[in-house]
Amino acid sequence: MMEQRRTIEAVSPYTLRNMPIRPRAWQTLIDTPGATRVSNEDGEVLLVPERGQLRMYWAFVDIEAMRESFGPMFEAIRGDISAERADYVAMDLVGLPDREWLNPLLRDADFTFFAEWMEMVHPRLDPAAVPEFPEGVSMRRAQDADIDRLREIYLEAYGRFADGDRAFDAMVEEAQWAGVLEASGEIAGFALNGEVERGEGRILTGAVAPSQWGNGYGKLVVSAAMYQLASREALHASIVLRPDITQSLRTCAELGFRHQRAGLEYRRDVDEAAIAAVRDARRVAGVKARFGNWR
């Protein structure tokens, strides 16, 4: 075991990364079916299928090495990006306070900022904390016939911050439990829970139909998800939120979740025609900025 750990660490000498990843987890990404890896002695870039989309990771020995190698490496993997595989390519940035040097590289690869994300963790789940539902409101396990409605609620509730149909369907496949909140016989919200591993449970996603906002249903949905994880012997629970959706942050904070880490998500379209249009608009804007005023 120790020899295997040394081997993994020996092939992962890079210190500049888009987000902190342990050597063993990095090797798992490399071994993901369908993943593409481009590397040299100074760094590597990975394109990994994740939850119905594609996600890019990179690691280099230093900034200068990335400046020199990132562009050619991205060109080498760009052929694996297609609409048949994903709606977009996502890339997270965590722990990089100075991004001025990085912005030109991302712009040349057609990545644009999408949104912030925050991971929150509940430090101690209580298996005796059974949610109490008001009259006319109940929670039940989801059925196959509910999925289309749950997808609609997810897309409506998250709006432009939704991860898309493919990502939602992938979360449904990953879920070990899907709970539906009903109010007066209508689906008002839902939650999806993932695996419980070594006492850690994950709430994959949850949402309340916009027409039902303001009734306190978000707290009920999350409370039910927490209770379900606790019933499976989870000691802690985590959830990833969009800070731009302030109500979700407030709801989870009131239920005892605390900030764990945060990051920035960048995305790249898979539609090359759309990318070309954005580039043309950027070029025209640059021309106007230089020549559009008599001064």
Describe this structure in words.
With 295 residues, the protein is an alpha+beta fold. The protein has 2 domains: 2-117 and 265-291, Aminopeptidase (3-Layer(aba) Sandwich), CATH 3.40.630; 124-255, Gcn5-related N-acetyltransferase (GNAT) (Aminopeptidase, 3-Layer(aba) Sandwich). Helix content is 35%, strand content 31%. It contains 9 helices and 12 strands. The chain has helices at residues 2-10, 23-30, 63-77, 103-108, 147-158, 165-174, 217-231, 246-254, 272-291; strands spanning 16-17, 36-40, 43-50, 53-60, 88-93, 112-122, 137-141, 177-183, 186-197, 200-208, 236-241, 258-269. Strands 1, 2, 3, 4, 5, 6, 7, 8, 9, 10, 11 and 12 form a 12-stranded mixed beta sheet that branches. A hairpin with a 2-residue loop joins β3 (43-50) and β4 (53-60). α5 (147-158) packs across α6 (165-174). The protein is globular.
Task: Summarize this structure briefly.
With 295 residues, the chain is α+β, with helices and mostly antiparallel strands. The protein is built from 9 helices and 12 strands.
Can you give keywords for this protein?
alpha+beta; 295 residues; Aminopeptidase; 9 helices; 2 domains; twelve-stranded mixed β-sheet
